[in-house]
Design goal:
By secondary structure, this protein is mainly beta. Helices cover 0% and strands 50% of the residues. The radius of gyration is 13 Å and the shape is elongated.
Length: 92
């Protein structure tokens, strides 16, 4: 079904997409894991739709994005990238 993501070390604990939102939560190794996370939600043309700090991120779909994908970076320089979720406008 194409449900996968790429990573250089950031692991996702949860990733969910509905017709209304995209949300994800990063896995941390233990309670003393002090990494910081920044998630950028990217749309058509590479446009940054939202920039969210923290171990969980959520993007509310407007309908004009074309697609939405998440790019996560941790404070150690590791990354994760989700596959695009195609978005249809309300008029389609």
């Amino acid at each position: 079904a194409g449900n996968f993501y790429s990573s250089t070390g950031v692991l996702l604990d949860d990733y969910a997409v509905t017709s209304r939102e995209v949300r994800l939560r990063m896995a941390t190794s233990n309670a003393s894991d002090d990494r910081r996370f920044r998630t950028q939600f990217i749309g058509r043309g590479g446009r940054v739709l939202a920039d969210v700090a923290g171990p969980a991120a959520r993007y509310v779909i407007r309908g004009d994005e074309g697609y939405v994908r998440a790019r996560v970076r941790d404070s150690n320089g590791r990354h994760a990238w989700t596959q695009p979720t195609w978005v249809r406008s309300a008029s389609q």
